[in-house]
User: Fold this.
Amino acid sequence: MKKQTVKLLALILVLFSLTQVGVTQNFSTDFEDHIRSAPTIVEGKVVSQRTIRNEENGNIFTLSELEISKNLKGNNEATITVETRGGKFEDITDIVSHTVNLSVGEEVILLLNSVENSSYFKILNGKFGKIRYISGNRKFHAIYEGNAETFRSKRELIERIGILTNNSFNINPVATETAFNNIIEVGELCFAIANPEPLFQTSQVAFDILIKSETAGLLFSGSEVVLKYPTNNLGSNIALNQNVEVNKEIVSENPEYVLTVEDLGVGQIMRLN
Amino acid sequence: MNISSLGTNSDESPFGSGLWEINPDVTQGTTMACYTTVEIDYALLNDKDLGSDKMVGLVFNPGNSPTGTYRWYLDSDIDTDPILMEKGITFQMVEDVAKMVYCDWEAATGIDFEYMGGIANGQVASDGMSVIQFNPINTLGLTTTRFSTNLCLDDEVFEERFTEADIELTTNSDWFVSLNNNIGAGQIDLYSVLTHEVGHAILLRHSMDTNNANGTEDDRTMFWQLDAEQSKRVLDNKTISGVQLLVERSQAAIDPVRCFNGFVLATNGGPCTTPVYEVHQSLCNFSLKGNIRTNKNSLRISVEDKIDNLKIVGINGSVFHDTQDLGRGDHEIPISNFKNGLYFVVVSCKGQLYTEKIIIQ
Assistant:
């Protein structure tokens, strides 16, 4: 399998970071059936929540405002309300087993149905209606909670949903490609810091940020690389203070790819876009 | 530090039991190469939404349960539900299984469950009663566990208190409703599902460390999935130890200076008030049914054909009961003077021997 690589050259005193993702999984019949039968599928982020209590039977419901980033099936407003069972109302908390929980800030794909006589949506079939994005896991980036199926990348998941819903969510292949040998393990998309070189005359360190995909033809259109550095010798806000220099070395020909650097938080974090 | 589940159903924040990975250095989702795994035996409910890691206590308001027993009810509408009627599921059948399930939990954890009988109109979330009910839900079963919050902010262990837990079972499943274990093809064992749901009703969370995808399945009671034809009736020791810890801590908090002053929790209330087993043996056309109570310790055997000999034998071979020629009908065998423990019922009929293990507790 041919590998697509992107190589960045970064100059900074201290930089390190490595992300590994992997594991492939066959798509199950359950997943496909649910994707095909769901009236509405959206990708979005939970931006707020509130709870209500049914006065008739005492049940507590949580209403989550979902900011939609992509309509995968059906057309919905930019923000919708999703109703789930359970939650905390005044001094009472209901925990409902085997149902879907949402939390503020969570990024998800939801399979939805309308709530009768309401503008709200409800999640289909409990855990069979939620695909959750994961960060910080070494093996996968998304989980279908219905059958615990995992997806090694958002791209893989979105493209699969596109196939099942007769939509084209595919990412276009690159026009050119470059392969290189590296010790990076297999994965949908891997980052590595390599080739550190101290530059004593200028008190700098140069190193490469290598980005590799095992998927042939995959277009690299952008990514975040978050780096942590010591402030005792670099100071803070190294992007603002121009203590970091970042250059493309070997990149794809995708014109949308733009290299930017910015400070995050209190000056100990830098992000490359 | 980052801690993440190696399983995939990790939507059980803060933790469910199972295999978890501890990663010593994480920066915005970037994972370093060194990590280790830990096994978490069980997971009990707490209230993460309050930002608290304190536990939910299992004690009762004496106004609802004067003696501190865990009272549970069964929806009496089971016998009039058209879907269940069509499936041949009766109130009596469900009651027999439910009693056995609570008996298992009682024997294992010491919690004194008290069956309060059938109740009309099913569950109401705010009535303080824990009810089992059938509904057309999309999962096999689910449990709504309710607790009062912000009770005792100064207590070092507890901040919330259990108030009720309603169990819903789906009407949409091909249920196997029996005390015997001959689950048919494609059927879901109600005994196993109810065992799991009662676990939720006594504040257990899911275990989730393995899943079907990798070919293995967590054998713990609180694993989140159950397959058709799967029997999972035996409580695992790790889960039991979690409930026992909860019981110990809850009782310790029934103290004038602790969180649950004035509340009650009964434990070790004696032998189960329900049949401990029922066995049907088609070869010799007889059935055994234990009916073990504090005031009625008996073993009933229902015989269709003649049985030549029935013995009750201890594990060391001692014969505690020996009866010849049991004819058609029901026979009560007194076992009130038996010590608690394991015994074997050995039946001889039509030239064959049949042995059944029983536990008197």
Observations:
- The radius of gyration of chain B is 23 Å.
- DSSP finds four helices and 21 strands in chain B.
